[in-house]
Amino acid sequence: NAPSPPLPIRKLLLLLWKILLYTLGSLDDAFEQKNTARHEHGLEFIAENPAKVIGRMPPILPPLAGAECLEMQGQTEGGSSARRAKRQSFTKQSALDSDVASDDGSTNSNNISNNTSNDEDASTIAPSTPVPSLSSAESTLSLASDASSVDPASTLLMKELPWVPKVRQKDLETFLEHTRKKFVGFSIKDDLTTLIGLPKPIHESIKILKQHLYIPLSEVQIKIEDDIVKYPLSKKETNVPDTAAERLYRATLMQIPQFLIALLKLLLTSTPTAKPKTESINILCDVIPEEMPCSMVQTMKLGFDINRHKEMIVKAVSAILLLLLKHLKVNHIYQFEYICQNLVFSNCITVILKFFNHNILSHIQAKNTIPPLDFPTCVIGPQPELTADLFDVPETENYCWRNMFSSINLLRILNKLTKGKHARTMVLVAVKSAPILRKTLRVKQAMMQLYALKLLKLQTRYLGRQWRKSNMMAISAIYQRVRHRLNDDWAYGNEQETQTWDFQTEERALRNKIDIFNQRRYHRIAAAHANNNNTNNPANASTQNASANEFDFDSFTPLNNDLLTALSSNNNLGDQDLPEAFKRHYEEWLNDEVFNVEQQTDWDALLQPKSIVIY
């Protein structure tokens, strides 16, 4: 906040990221925890590790748009050659139909490296190592892949799908219901085995669908939660896993919205296209010196430090958000949805798209480092005098590890926010994110291209036939790289999928389920937080107490009031076990119910039947 004293934001964010990595674990640990949780719920293990599959995928070479070809060719050639280059750009599709090969015949790889820079962690997925391409025009438009020769067996052949197709149980039920109504005339609810009256091709189709049936962990968790809410007396959650993610969520539940808003403010302030504002957060307090530089060399060094400082803040924020989403989704789906919904309500989708709405290639190729001042060069051996010649970065690498890492993380966060949510997908369509995501495909890095293609696949059915006709290269890349969902006609805009949706109702229903989950499992934390707020602000006491008592699940807990059970128990009750209300009115209870000296109880009157009046 503005009144708060200046803090070293970059150091705090990097420290928070390292703490989360140490307590929650890396992304590989989240994958192992997911398999463990699936085994506990009786589900099959996931054999595909996404990091390993993506590591064997070569990047694609998407062609340029016609206008871009005209802009490049128009400076040196006439109009006829420019039109010819435009026609050729639309007809060449061999780059998406075969492997990417270098001039000497060696296959380009996109291996995932564990080596990161001095401010990155080895447990995160690192991008591939590009080298400059042969032509200067190509080097300014895309990043080249690693030119080192690798074993051809380690690279995926494009003749086979990189991912195993999946089928949701809902899609299987919909297919069976449609075919039964068509061939039999009626449908059977919750029956996936009866195939009487259906033709043999339908039997084979259902067999294939069942072979690829995938039940996610989130559906099992939602089913358990719905049963607990529907049957509060018979269905109870007895064993809450005491994991690091559970303890973190319980400790920060009341402050999660404020934390996420603060992270998004830092991300927005550190965006390359962000304009300085008076009310923005001061993120450069530990970079800008007290005395302004007086020489050109010091001014250049300060400019490099400011840009590098912003890049590290974006990197830390994106890594923190991705770690939280990954681990909370494994722990419980409603914890993950609570984080996602707070991010969406805080305009996280538009903030991430604003980050990509600039020249992403120049951002990834940015060199905001000074080699003599990097660690460990700055502490080993004699230090050279800082001159203008030291700012010339050698052209051994035409990429920046830090910016590539941040871009991939932000694309993954955007995927997690919008996957399976029609309302949030329509936000992508409304803000015209398709051209922005298409520009990211020009970065020749397989992981970054994959998550950009996933985002394009989500909104393809809403973009219209003309967009699909002019972007067939992207459609082909989606078919080739993204996982197939059988019975998913994402590319043709089915009427059932493109119908008008009540987006507010969808988000409100999800919000109600999240609130019921939080009130049921963490109602004591919410009550304590409400009491603290009532003490600080008595004016809101009645409203907060009403909201805290809205979901009182303790009132459904059965009690054993049998006298024989109490007398037969061997537990010795002390004064500390008696409730305060009983101690406070103990003497009054003795006078009224035990001694009763002033008036005698008419025991015969108590045994007489009385009429009950129902109002």
From TrEMBL:
Q: Where does the UniProt annotation place the signal sequence?
A: 1-25
Report the SMART domains cross-referenced here.
DUF3402
Q: Which residues cross the membrane?
A: none
Region (Disordered) location: 74-137
Q: Which GO terms describe its biological process?
A: cytoskeleton organization
Q: Where is the Far11/STRP C-terminal domain?
A: 199-586
Locate the compositionally biased regions of type Low complexity: 106-117
Q: Which Pfam families match?
A: DUF3402
| Keyword tags | Signal
Gene Ontology CC, one term: cytosol
This one is known as Far11/STRP C-terminal domain-containing protein
